[in-house]
Amino acid sequence: MTRFLLRRVGAAAVLLVVLSALIFALDQISPGDKARAYVGGNASPAAVAAARHQLGLDQPWPQQYLRYLWNAVHGDLGASLRTHRPVTTDLGQFLPATAELVLFSFVLAVLLALLFALSGALRWPGTGLYRGVLLLGATAPAFLLGLGGIVLFYGRLHWLPEAGRGVDTSSPTGFVLLDSLLHGDGTGFVVGLRHLLLPGLALAIAPAISIGRILRSGLESVYGADHVRTARAKGIRESGVLCRHVVRNSLDAALSMSGLQLGFMFAGVVIVEDVFAWPGVGYYLAQSIPQSDFPAIAGVTLLLGGVYIVVNAVVDVLQAAADPRLTV
Amino acid sequence: MTVLSAPRRKFSLSIGDRFQPAGRVGNVVLVGLLVLTTLVAVFASVLAPDNPIQPVGDLNLPPLSPHHLLGTDNLGRDLLSRTLIGLRASWFSALVVVAIGLLFGGLLGVLAGAFGGWVDGVLMRFTDLFLALPGALVAIAVNAALGPGLIHTLIGVCVVWWPYYARIIRAEVRGLASRPHVEAARLAGVGRFRLVVKHILPGVVPTAIVTASLDVGNVVVLLAGLSFLGLGQAAPAPELGADVQRSLYLVLEQWWIPIIPGLAVMLLSLVANLGGDALRNLLAGER
User: What span, in angstroms and rounded, lies between the C-alpha atoms of B242 and B73?
Assistant: First the structure.
């Protein structure tokens, strides 16, 4: 187990270095003279040369990369060309909103997936429609789901708010649901929840299908297994058979798929945040793209990509802890 | 990602969960839809009733208006024409990405599978490295570094899209290499190159075709997402994702202007998924 743990953590570290090197390389090929951008368009050639030296741009690129890595580790990802603030400050401000949306959406996705898998495997009546709608939704791009939700639930039915988080985001932890719970603020909780529902659903449908399919095929293969027949023959009630002998044994592949999907959601959140003007890092990225604000784009890629890599590593380790056969 | 939740494809999906058309006729019809979509894309400029870039009618006409089947946008441009031309860009871009991914990934996969040993080790480590990075985000970063533009978008997506094919093709080559007919050819003294080209590659082709056709839908959605984020063609050119983004603010007054291009993306992805499934069923039935 220790060897597996070390190997997995090592692999994640290598991936983080590769990701940072990739972003550094992209920064090199992105158009624009950074020294000139630093001093302004009207600066003299001497001032530009001085700035180039000051920024270390006259050094060979391995040294520049090490400098970039050193700065990144110390929380310096450069300044955004659009907001004129340090990128890390921006990211720190917007990350909680993204984390809250992704985690909420992940819970939704798991619930939808369970419903999808159980209804399919157990042949519940009336599930064809539910499964059809979900499958259809999985082929739609996230922005269409979001827009459809806005037109229907805000424009026509007036049930849910259109966009944003609905509350002042300067709450202590940055997590609206958590804060309102801690303060016993019922209205705040409901407002936060209502704003989360549409973006959460738009983000949840694709992962729900992926997890649900794996879970369903797992359920179906375990359902006919010998140990399940034995359990039934012993006279255990059907619900008991289902919970203790079927679901638990078919979770393995579904768990690893869930981890994978959680990672993907941190990437997919960009479009959903853009549709709903959700004040997170994805919205920040979407606004940086038209302005060609590469430091900001690189910062978000590094952050969300890092989260993706770490989530996948943690899931692998958790899986190995649950099923030691995987460490071999 | 969903781009971006890029629906990616690390696990094979159980067959029973996908759309299942009834029988062989249904499958043929669905594959026909794939061909039809490609034909519509090829002849998009002929089929489009109006110039997609010039205003041709009143502003904000709803769908089913006379002379404008899908209505017009807030600049008076015909939405059917814009959607058709945008559909052509989406479909061909996706085909190009899948073709390049298949060629490059397939080449690496065949090399790794055929040589084995350290070549296999090195190539697959390299592939796994790319497979473990968040594809959609890297595509955004590459695209943003190169600047907006369709070619840059295609480069960005191609950079992250080949590893999946390398994995699948390698596995297929390894599987075929131990089959009796390949063993027999090897014992008969057939050289390594000829062995791969004549005895292994033909067996890889069906898997490659099915994998690629099932993947077109994923690429369509990813490309639409990038275009939606402003990483596609420049302003007046019709592009499905970008057209949604530009009319986002109209969704409550003139819902059809952003929704119709979005539905077109969904239609393409649906056709690609259904057609890919049908193609697999047909090929599986013939084996």
Answer: 14
Tell me the HSE value of A243 on the side-chain side, using a 13 A CA sphere.
4
d(CA B144, CA B149): 10
Residues of A in contact with B244 (CB under 8 A): 143-144, 147
Q: Can you give the pTM of this predicted structure?
A: 0.84
Judged by CB atoms closer than 8 Å, whether chains meet at B262 and A253 is answered as no
Nearest chain A CA: its distance from B48 CA (Å): 23
| 43-62 of A, contacting B, C-beta below 8 A | none
Q: Taking Cα atoms as reference points, which of A254, A137, A151, A252 lies closest to residue A201?
A: A137
- Of B233, B220, B228, B227, nearest to B264 by C-alpha is B220
**DSSP letters spanning A115-133:** HHHHHHHTT-TTHHHHHHH
Rounded to a whole number, what is the distance in Å from the CA of B127 to chain A's nearest CA? 12
- pLDDT band at A267; cut points 50, 70, 90: confident
Shortest distance, CA A313 to any CA of chain B (angstroms): 10
Q: Please identify every stretch of chain B with a pLDDT value under 50, giving residue numbers as ranges.
A: 1-19, 21
- Chain segment B28-73, per-residue pLDDT in tens: 888 898 899 999 988 888 887 887 877 777 777 788 777 777 877 7
Window 276-295 of A: residues touching B by CB (8 A cutoff) are 285-286, 289-290, 292, 294
User: Which among A212, A248, A213 has a CA at the least distance from the CA of A227?
Assistant: A248
How is A58-72 classified by DSSP, letter by letter? TS-HHHHHHHHHHHH
The domain covering A93-282 belongs, at the CATH homologous superfamily level, to: MetI-like (1.10.3720.10)
How far, in Å, CA of B153 to CA of B233, rounded? 9
How big is the CA angle at B278 (ends B170 and A211), to the nearest 5 degrees? 65
Name the residue with tokens 């003299």.
Answer: A44
Interface contact A109, partner B, CB < 8 A: no
SS3 B68: strand
Quick: pLDDT tens for B194-229. 888 888 888 888 888 888 888 888 899 888 988 888
**CA dist., res. A4 & res. A15, Å (int):** 16
pLDDT of residue B11: 35
* Nearest CB partner across the interface for A141, out of B18, B142, B262: B262
Q: Which of residues 82-121 of B touch A (CB under 8 A)?
A: none
Domain residue spans in chain A?
93-282
Residue whose C-alpha is closest to residue A263's, from A296, A309, A308, A227: A308
